[in-house]
Each structure stands twice: as C-alpha cells, then as structure tokens.
Amino acid sequence: MICHPNAKINLGLNVTERRPDGYHNLETVFYPIPLCDTLQLEAAGNTDSRPEGIFPDGIPMQEHATEDYTFRWGGIGIDCPPEQNLLVKALRLIQERHSLPHLSISLHKQIPSGAGLGGGSSDAAHTMKSLNQMFHLGLSDNELEERVTGLGADCPFFVRNRPVFATGIGNIFTPIALSLSGWHLVLVKPDIFVSTKEAYARIIPRKPGIPVTDIIRRPVEEWKGLLTNDFEEGVFALHPEIADIKTRLYDRGAAYASMSGSGSSVFGLFRTAPEETDMRRLFRESFYFQALL
Ligand SMILES: C[C@@](CO)(OP(=O)(O)O)[C@H](O)COP(=O)(O)OP(=O)(O)OC[C@H]1O[C@@H](n2ccc(N)nc2=O)[C@H](O)[C@@H]1O
Ligand SMILES: Nc1ncnc2c1ncn2[C@@H]1O[C@H](COP(=O)(O)OP(=O)(O)O)[C@@H](O)[C@H]1O
Fold first, then answer.
1. Within a domain: residue 173?
2. Which residue, 47, 99, 116, 185, is most buried by CB atoms nearer than 10 A?
3. Are 86 and 204 within one domain?
4. Same domain, residue pair 32 and 116
5. Cα 200 to ligand 1 centroid, rounded to whole Å
C-alpha cells in the first residue's frame, strides 16, 4: 500500500498556558498542504512489493532490517536512528495489541524536518492508518487519534487531515469551513533546525487579544498584523534570518506570511503565483516549495 503523508501549516498559533505535565495548551488552526512524503507498506511475500518502487532513479537508499520489519528510506536526511523513527514507533504501538506479519516499509522523505511542518508526525499517523486498513484492525478515527497522540502532540491531526481549530496540546479539534483553494503557497525552509521543546521554553503563555477563530473568518488580506504565531518573537530573536524570509515574502507581494509552528519554515500566501525563478534566486540557500492550494 502506498500513501502520501502530507505536511501542515499553522494559521495563527497562541500558546495560552503552561500545564502541570510540562506541555502547553494552545490555540491554532492546522491546515493540510500538498507537500508530501511517499510511504509504502507491504507484507513480506507480497509479490507486488518492489522496494525500489517509490524511490526516483539515482536516490541513495538506506536500509535497516530487523526480525519483524525491513525499513528503507531516502531523500531528505532524517537525523535520528531508524528505531527512533516515528513511523517505526507507530508500528511498535500497533504491534503491542495486534500480531502482524514481517513488513517491508519504504519512505521517500520530501518534507524537511525541524521545520514546523509536522512531517514525522504525519508519517506516524499515516503508518497507523495504513496498517489499520491493510490488516482490517477495525480502529476508529477516534481510537487512532488517541493512540498516535502518545507519539507527539501534532500526530492526531493527520488522522482526519482536514482544516481544524485545535486546542488542548494540539489534540482537541473543531472542524472549520476554511478553504484556501485558489491561493498560491510559497514555503521556505532555511537550513536552520529549531527544537520544538526549546521554542516552547522561550514563550510566556497568554490569551490572545482576538481569538484565532474570529480572525480566520475574515478575508486572508486582513490577516496581516492580526493572526500571530507566538513562537516568532523568540525564534526570530535567535535567528534573524528567519524573520528576514518573512519580510521578503511580504516584499514580493504575499497577502499573508508567517512562520509555521515552532519553525524554521516560513510560508506566504499569494493571490497570484509569484515568479518561481525569481523566488528560487531569492531563497537559494533554502528548501523551496510552491503549490496552488
Ligand atoms: C509547535 C507545534 C505546533 O503545531 O508543531 P511543530 O512546530 O513541532 O510542527 C506542536 O505543538 C508541536 O507538536 P510535536 O512536535 O508533535 O510535539 P511533541 O513531540 O509532542 O513535543 C515536543 C516537546 O514540545 C513541547 N510541547 C509540545 C506540544 C505542546 N502542546 N506543548 C509543549 O510544551 C514539550 O516540551 C515536548 O517535550
Ligand atoms: N519519519 C520522520 N521524519 C522526520 N523526522 C523524524 C521522523 N521520525 C522521527 N523524526 C525525528 O523528529 C524530529 C522532528 O521532525 P518533524 O516532525 O518532521 O519536524 P517538526 O517537529 O518541525 O514538524 C526530527 O529531527 C527527527 O529526529
């Protein structure tokens, strides 16, 4: 089975309080975007399984084989050992209650990590969803959300994967009728890794003046200056290059620009598609992605 774990952006992000368990309550809108990894899961012995299948020609592949799975990955580097990969942890969680055959897992990584895009979380949620489907485990979306939350606060969003207003630690959802269809998304990820834990530690929690849900109902052109990401202040102070990306996106005509999550990626929403070669030249040190939403 092949699936495409996608990334998310945060539209507004207010960290409202620190909890006794060390986590923080927040208010944000999660919005799925078309930047995707490719993930293939096959039971051993499946004659359709071609491990090299999802990797474009010439992409070097790494492999980690154990008694119960073989994991191959390539593309953008992942800075943790394979057993710590969130998709392997998702597999382990499922194996605690269900017996599965030997699995062949292949991941073509295209979402940069440490970017505030939730790539690892998406891989974990999509692994659980795929296993549920392949082996008819009968887990409901609520059960999948509950189980995958243990792997990261961002994970449960990717189970239903639709625009939501999120509260709690980012795991309590209210669907919203927001569509950015017709907007051009530009995403820039500088070569800077931001630790989510450290980014949270730099924030003094507070209630937002205007709730995210009120701002999001207004036209995108009115979001600038109203819809805020509380991580920006601390992260921009540490890395002015990230603030500079936001300024440049506005200079090039973005109607709205913001860092996503705890960074370091910054996105811009444009009414008309910006000239790609110009943008690539402007952000040449960075990972660059452009899509029509
Ligand atoms: C900031 C956000 C916004 O969407 O996304 P990213 O920037 O990571 O994509 C999320 O809250 C990140 O979720 P996720 O990356 O899954 O976090 P986890 O792995 O669960 O937690 C990493 C660390 O962040 C802190 N943490 C995380 C979530 C939360 N609501 N409060 C916290 O204080 C904790 O210190 C935790 O040890
Ligand atoms: N499948 C995966 N893809 C990317 N990173 C992963 C994965 N599994 C575990 N990780 C670890 O999670 C960290 C955060 O990655 P990711 O969730 O993609 O970024 P972010 O938290 O910024 O959204 C990485 O630095 C890496 O150590």
1. no
2. 116
3. no
4. yes
5. 8
**pLDDT attached to residue 54:** 85
- Of 140, 167, 194, which residue is a domain's last? 167
Angle at 253 (CA atoms; ends 247, 244), nearest 5 degrees: 10
Predicted pLDDT of residue 107 = 97
Provide the whole-model pTM. Answer: 0.96
> Average pLDDT over the chain, rounded to whole?
94
Contact 187, 264 (CB under 8 A): no
Domain membership of residue 288 (yes or no) is: yes
Annotated catalytic residue 141: no
Judgement on whether residues 157 and 183 belong to the same structural domain of the protein: no
Number of domains in the chain: 2
Mean pLDDT value of segment 237-251: 97
Neighbours of 196 (CB within 10 A): 16
Atom of ligand 1 nearest to the CA of 154: 16
- Model confidence band, residue 221 (pLDDT cutoffs 50, 70, 90): very high
106 marked as part of a ligand binding site: no
Residue 207 designated active-site: no
Provide the residue count of the chain: 293
> Tokens representing 40?
């293939």
Share of the chain above pLDDT 70, in %: 97
Asked if 62 contacts 73 with a C-beta cutoff of 8 angstroms, the reply is yes
